[in-house]
Amino acid sequence: MSKKPLRAVLVGFGNVGRKLAAMLTEERDRYPGLAELALRPVAIFTGRHGAIVNPAGMDLGDALRWYKEGGGFPAAPMTVMDALRLLDYDVLVELSPLDIAQRGEPALSRVRAALEQGRHAVTANKGPAAFAYRELAELARRKGVRFLFESAVMDGAPVFALRSALSGCRVKALAGILNTTTNFVISRLERGESIEAAVRTAQRLGFAEADPSLDLEGWDAAAKTAILANFFLQADIDPLRVERRGIAGLGAADVARAAAAGRRLKLVCRAWRENGAVRATVAPEEVDGGHHFAAVNGKGAALRIETDMMGPIWIMQEDPGLADTAAGVIQDLLAVAAGRQGEKNGK
Ligand SMILES: NC(=O)c1ccc[n+]([C@@H]2O[C@H](COP(=O)([O-])OP(=O)(O)OC[C@H]3O[C@@H](n4cnc5c(N)ncnc54)[C@H](OP(=O)(O)O)[C@@H]3O)[C@@H](O)[C@H]2O)c1
Questions:
Q1: How far is the CA of 11 from the centre of ligand 1 (A)?
Q2: Which of 127, 115, 124, 112 is nearest to 91 (CA)?
Q3: How many CA atoms lie within 13 A of 308 on its CB side?
Q4: How confident is the model at residue 343 (pLDDT cuts 50, 70, 90)?
Q5: Whose CA is nearest to atom 10 of ligand 1?
Q6: Residue 321 CA: which ligand 1 atom is closest?
Q7: Can you say whether the dihedral through the CA atoms of 27, 33, 34, 36 is positive or negative?
Q8: Paired residues of 189 in beta bridges
Q9: Ligand 1 pocket by C-beta < 6 Å: which residues?
Q10: How far is residue 157's CA from residue 134's CA, in Å, rounded to a whole number?
Q11: Do the Cβ atoms of 52 and 58 come closer than 8 Å?
């Protein structure tokens, strides 16, 4: 693999963006597997904390230090869209927040713009794949570039990477506990805490969405379910077409009633084929104490994949943190770098 740096436009330099930058610079010695990956931003954009652009490329560690020391970057010298169209770069790394009301925008248009320019796009933001997976995947295929979003569901756990390992299998159904915040909040309710206090803790720890209704009303889970349905079941749905009920209305009494019956409340995402179509749901369910879902505690997550050839396959995730999310982005960047090396070798 080439050590030639990937030239990147980074959009979003929040919890995940800065953790990614830290892992690739000041924390790098802890991760020998990163030896072959070098990222050289030509631009870094934020929402309210300015931007920095250097068409020649800049040192990622310097950029992280400037951001921390200055509390942000200077005012943006150009728009994100201009940067994506005018600068020379290999990959867009899109790490801005999910916006359901805007149907995944502005991230979706930015991913589309990068792909149209023949650049790869890597994103932890669920919006692009939840609202336009089919269009963007087809665009990427036509342009001969990658559209990757491993960290959009279960962080760096290999969810989308599993597709190639399941070659020959047809996925029939998926079920999962996929929203960290609601699972964490329910676990805290079981310990007698209020929803509000549990959400505040989740926000302080950096994994709750800035707008808690995205988690509590099941929108984040619906976005993940839509991505999974689009990717594994060839659906063409978006989060608004997922039948959705969140946990906002749940309280200690609901949790206690489930516990008294030897069950646990969980926000469960499902997608399956039915009468030639794909159905997708998100809803609180009481799961039996012996079920794998009942073993998913706190920030954990789980995904059950049913195929036509094999018994159900499970991916379980225990206590992920920001490094897990950044690791998913890193896996995608390594895939882009490996592809570039493959092209060079005439593969
Ligand atoms: N945190 C996690 O554990 C986790 C896990 C999986 C996936 N994700 C996804 O990863 C993405 C980033 O998460 P995060 O925790 O890093 O979020 P965050 O801390 O809220 O950071 C978001 C970043 O995006 C910037 N931003 C906001 N609106 C923007 C816009 N319109 N254009 C350009 N930049 C904009 C923000 O700038 P300002 O600060 O200046 O507003 C900030 O730099 C989200 O889509 C999230 O759903 C996060």
A1: 9
A2: 115
A3: 8
A4: low
A5: 124
A6: 3
A7: positive
A8: none
A9: 11-17, 45-49, 95-98, 106, 124-126, 151, 155, 206-207, 210, 322, 325
A10: 22
A11: yes
273, 172 Cβ separation under 8 angstroms: yes
Dist. CA 336–CA 198, nearest whole Å = 38
CA of residue 46 to ligand 1 center, whole Å: 8
How would DSSP label each residue in 249-270? T--HHHHHHHHHTTEEEEEEEE
Strand extents, DSSP E, 16-141: 39-45, 51-53, 91-94, 120-123
Q: Does residue 327 come out as left (phi exceeding 0), alpha (psi in the -120 to 50 range) or beta?
A: alpha
Catalytic residue of the set 224, 266, 299, 347: 224
Instruction: Render the burial of 242-262: b for 16+ CB within 10 Å, e for the rest.
Output: bebebbeebeeebbeebeeee
Please say if 3 is a catalytic residue.
no
Rg (CA), the chain: 20
Ligand 1: which atom is nearest the Cα of residue 48? 40
Going from the C-alpha of 55 to that of each of 7, 113, 279, 316, the distances in angstroms are: 10, 18, 46, 42
User: Tell me: the pLDDT tens digits for 174-213?
Assistant: 999 999 999 999 999 998 888 889 889 888 887 787 778 8
CA dist., res. 89 & res. 333, Å (int): 13
Amino acid identity, position 126: K
Answering whether pTM is above 0.90, one says yes
